[in-house]
Automatic annotation (TrEMBL):
Signal peptide: none
Highest taxon in the source lineage: Bacteria
Pfam families, per the entry: Glyco_hydro_10
Keywords noted in UniProt: Carbohydrate metabolism, Glycosidase, Hydrolase, Polysaccharide degradation
Family: Belongs to the glycosyl hydrolase 10 (cellulase F) family.
Top EC class for this record: hydrolase
Catalytic activity: Endohydrolysis of (1->4)-beta-D-xylosidic linkages in xylans
Matching Gene3D superfamilies: Glycosidases (3.20.20.80)
Transmembrane residue ranges: none
Phylogenetic placement of the source organism: Bacteria, Pseudomonadati, Bacteroidota, Sphingobacteriia, Sphingobacteriales
Protein name stated in the entry: Beta-xylanase
């Protein structure tokens, strides 16, 4: 049939992030699109540690359970996101009763308990987990997160070990953004190699692909696909969208009037996306999908970070209150014209 998942069947899975609040629960139009075009889902927010374990030992699985049940009901590959991430981790995770940083031993124990509880709960039901998210900086160095500061480099290896213990049959991924930046690519390569060389299994590297119309280049993206897969791991596109908006941030030191003008400059398509921009967006999506098809032997899954434009985090980043058009479906969940080209591209190759 004329759907994305059928066109790419046998090449790679087509996934989407689901955001409980915004999309699928009470939105029939969104549901229809999700069930028609996608065969994989990932939790946009409901499996992050601050949501799953807001206070020590108090787990809340209400939303995550619904997410997993939904995927199972529709026979989808379900991806868990994310076990160890410096962001969206509850502050208690790193602190003792006096508000001081916990010891290495305590933090490792908290990691173990969190990972065992979460991965264990869904044992056998999740295709793969983003075990560690965003541990390397754009310059290739380690992010100096609390995990890094308190545990040291080993926190990565330990996280993968704990996840493997909790569900030996689930796949385990390292996931990061801006992976086409050469220095970052090498940093990730080195870090994952270190884990693999220590005898701990890593099944895949996720390239988030929060892209724009002019970045990153197809060439550097291809270099990263090749470099990562040379480690013998699967490569996956995990959080793709293509923002059509300029990538600037407001200079908060500027005069108010300048800031207001700049804000408008950063939000040029409030009344709709001009046709030529839609064409540019479609052409850009085609370039990336052609690249993924070229490397279909290495790429396991291509996941979009949301269904309809209205649900995208990009409307709020890097400045709030923008109107972006980064996804495959519009704010009414109508399919964008270029998606048919993506379907035909998938069918051909
Ligand atoms: O649900 C609450 C709502 O009740 C509350 O009123 C509101 C006030 O701020 O916040 C709502 O939660 C927000 C949540 O998104 C749901 O919309 C959080 O504040 C906000 O921080 C959260 O942002 C998410 C962000 O990660 C941080 O967790 C984005 O939706 C999500 O798209 C984004 O996804 C990340 C990936 O996990 C990792 N890679 C980068 C990617 C983009 O930043």
């Amino acid at each position: 049939s004329n759907t994305l998942k059928d066109a790419y069947n046998g090449k790679f899975y087509i996934g989407t992030a689901l955001n409980l609040n915004q999309i699928w629960e009470r939105n029939e139009k969104a549901k229809e699109v999700i069930e028609t075009h996608f065969n994989s889902i990932v939790a946009e927010n409901c499996m992050k540690s601050e949501n799953l374990q807001p206070r020590e030992g108090e787990f809340n699985f209400t939303d995550a359970d619904k997410f997993v049940e939904y995927g199972e009901k529709h026979g989808m590959h379900i991806i868990g996101h994310t076990l160890i991430w410096h962001s969206q981790a509850p502050t208690w995770f790193f602190k003792d009763a006096n508000g001081n940083d916990v010891s290495r031993e305590v933090l490792i124990e908290r990691m173990r308990k969190h990972i065992h509880t979460v991965v264990g709960r869904y044992k056998g039901r999740i295709r793969g987990w983003d075990v560690v998210n965003e541990a390397i900086l754009d310059n290739g160095e380690w992010r100096k997160s609390k995990f890094y500061q308190i545990v040291g480099e080993d926190f990565i290896k330990l996280a993968f070990q704990f996840a493997h213990e909790a569900d030996p049959n689930t796949e385990l991924y390292y996931n990061d953004y801006s992976t086409a930046i050469p220095a970052k690519r090498e940093g990730i390569y080195k870090m994952v190699k270190q884990v693999i060389d220590s005898g701990v299994k890593v099944h895949g590297i996720g390239m988030q692909e929060h892209n724009g119309l002019d970045h990153p280049s197809i060439e550097e993206t291809e270099n990263s696909i090749l470099r990562f897969s040379s480690l013998g791991v699967k490569v996956m596109v995990t959080e793709m969208e293509i923002s059509v908006l300029p990538n600037g941030r407001p200079n908060m030191g500027a005069e108010i009037s300048d800031r207001v003008a700049y804000r408008k400059e950063l939000n040029p398509y409030v009344d709709g996306l001009p046709d030529e921009k839609m064409k540019e967006l479609g052409a850009r999506y085609k370039e990336f999908f052609s690249l993924y098809l070229k490397h279909q032997d290495k790429i396991d899954r291509v996941t979009l970070w949301g269904v309809g434009d209205g649900d995208s985090w990009k409307n709020g980043f890097p400045v709030p209150g923008r109107t972006d058009y980064p996804l495959l479906f519009d704010r009414e969940y109508k399919v964008k014209p270029f998606v048919q080209d993506l379907i035909e591209l998938g069918r051909k190759k």
